[in-house]
Design goal:
The complex is a heterodimer of chains A (177) and B (183). Chain A is an all-alpha fold and 177 residues long. In chain A, helix 1 packs across helix 2, helix 3 packs parallel to helix 6 and helix 6 packs antiparallel against helix 7. Chain A is built from 9 helices and no strands. Chain A has one domain: AhpD-like (Up-down Bundle), CATH 1.20.1290. Chain B is built from 9 helices and no strands. Chain B has one domain: AhpD-like. Chain B is mainly alpha-helical. In chain B, 67% of the residues lie in helices and 0% in strands. The chains are: A mainly alpha (177), B mainly alpha (183). Chains A and B meet through helix 2, helix 6 and helix 8 of A and helix 2, helix 6 and helix 8 of B.
C-alpha cells in the first residue's frame, strides 16, 4: 500500500496524478513533449531510453510500462527492447543509439559523470545537439519519475501482462491526461 | 563550457531552458508549483531547503547555491545556517518535522526504494500530512532531475556566492514561471 492515501487499484504514477492534479499536469506535459513531441529521436527510441533508465533505477512500474510502450512502437522490431533490458546493450541498436544510451546511463548515476569523450563519441556516431539534449533530459526526468513512483511506494502491478494494454495506450495516445 | 551549443550564455539550468523552450516552460511551471505556489502548508523556505539539500547531496553546485540562497532569503538567516543544515541537519536548529522530511528527501536522492515506512511514520507522528510527504518526495525527485540536467550538459555556474544571494529577493518576488523565457 502506498505511503500516502491514494485511490486504491490505480497503478503507479497515475495514482499520484490523481492525488495531486496540480503537479500531475506539468509532469504529464513533460512526458508528452519529451517522448512524443518534435525531436530528431523517434518515439520508440525515446521510450527505449526511458525504459533503460527506469531499469537501472530498479523502478518496476516505469520500466515495465515504458518497455511495453517501446515494444508497441517498435512493432516487429520489438526484440531490441528485451535484448537491451537484459544485456544493457543490443546488437540491433544503431551505433548512435548505443552512444546515446551510454550517456543516458551516465546521467542516471549522476549528471557529473558524463564526460566530453562520451559526448564526442555520440557526435562521431551522428548525434547532434538536440539528440544529446533530449537524451540527457529524458534520462534526468526518469530519474525523477522513478523516485516519485517508488519513493511513495505506489501500487506496482506484478505481471508483465498487466502492462500490455498500458503500453498500447501509451503508444497510441501518449501522455495527455 | 556546455557540451552542446546552447546559443545563449545564461548560467545553469537557464541555458538549456532557453535552448529548448518546449521543455523549459514546463520545467518552470513545475518549479513554480513545487517551490513558490502559496497554496501549500510547507513554507517556501522549507521547500527551497529540501531542493537545496537534495542538490547538495547530488553535488550540483548551481542548484544548491541558487536554492540555498532562496532558503536563506525566506528564513532570513545567514549562509552559515544553510550550510549547517546541508552538512548535518540532525544537529541544526530546525524543527523535528523538517528533520524528518529532510531524512525522506535524503532517501529519495539515493533512490525511491530507500524511503522506508519507518521514515514515513516518523514524519506523520511529527505532524506531516500526506500532502506534505507527497511534496517532499516530489521536490527531492524533481531536483534529482534538475541537477542531472544542469550537470549532464555541463552548464556553467557563477563561482561568486554573492551572485546567488543578490538574485534571491527578485526570484522570491517573481517566482519561477517566467524564468528562462526571456534572455
Amino acid at each position: 500500500m502506498a505511503y500516502i492515501k491514494v485511490e486504491e487499484g490505480i497503478p503507479g504514477i497515475r495514482s499520484l496524478f490523481k492525488f495531486s492534479p496540480e503537479t500531475g499536469k506539468p509532469l504529464c506535459d513533460l512526458a508528452e513533449v519529451l517522448l512524443r513531441g518534435p525531436s530528431p529521436l523517434s518515439s520508440s527510441e525515446r521510450e527505449l531510453i526511458a525504459a533503460f533508465v527506469s531499469n537501472r533505477n530498479n523502478c518496476m512500474f516505469c520500466m515495465n510500462s515504458h518497455a511495453a510502450a517501446a515494444r508497441f512502437l517498435f512493432d516487429e522490431d520489438k526484440q531490441v527492447v528485451d535484448d537491451l533490458l537484459k544485456n544493457q546493450t543490443a546488437d540491433s541498436l544503431s551505433p548512435k543509439m548505443k552512444a546515446l544510451l551510454w550517456i543516458a546511463g551516465k546521467v542516471q548515476s549522476n549528471g557529473k559523470s558524463v564526460t566530453p569523450e562520451d559526448i564526442e563519441n555520440a557526435r562521431k556516431e551522428g548525434a547532434n545537439d538536440t539528440d544529446i539534449h533530449d537524451t540527457v533530459l529524458i534520462a534526468a526526468s526518469f530519474s525523477m519519475f522513478n523516485r516519485y513512483v517508488d519513493g511513495l511506494d505506489s501500487y506496482t502491478p506484478a505481471n508483465e501482462e498487466d502492462y500490455l494494454e498500458m503500453g498500447k495506450r501509451m503508444g497510441q495516445k501518449g501522455y495527455h491526461i | 563550457m556546455a557540451f552542446i551549443d546552447l546559443q545563449n550564455d545564461l548560467p545553469g539550468i537557464r541555458g538549456p531552458m532557453i535552448y529548448r523552450p518546449e521543455t523549459g516552460t514546463i520545467l518552470n511551471e513545475l518549479a513554480e508549483i513545487l517551490l513558490h505556489d502559496e497554496d501549500n502548508t510547507l513554507s517556501r523556505g522549507d521547500r527551497e531547503m529540501i531542493g537545496a539539500y537534495t542538490s547538495y547531496l547530488n553535488d550540483c553546485f548551481f542548484c544548491q547555491n541558487v536554492h540555498g540562497a532562496m532558503a536563506q532569503h525566506y528564513y532570513e538567516c545567514d549562509t552559515q545556517f544553510i550550510d549547517s543544515i546541508k552538512k548535518n541537519f540532525l544537529s541544526a536548529d530546525i524543527s523535528d518535522k523538517l528533520k524528518s522530511l529532510l531524512t525522506i528527501a535524503g532517501s529519495v536522492q539515493k533512490g525511491g526504494r530507500y524511503v522506508t515506512s519507518e521514515q514515513i511514520e516518523k514524519a506523520k507522528s511529527l505532524g506531516a500530512t500526506d500532502r506534505e510527504i507527497h511534496d517532499t518526495v516530489l521536490i527531492a525527485a524533481a531536483f534529482c532531475m534538475f541537477n542531472r540536467y544542469v550537470d549532464g550538459l555541463n552548464t556553467w555556474a557563477p563561482k561568486d556566492m554573492q551572485v546567488y544571494i543578490d538574485r534571491a529577493p527578485m526570484r522570491a518576488k517573481e517566482g519561477y514561471s517566467q524564468l528562462g523565457l526571456t534572455k
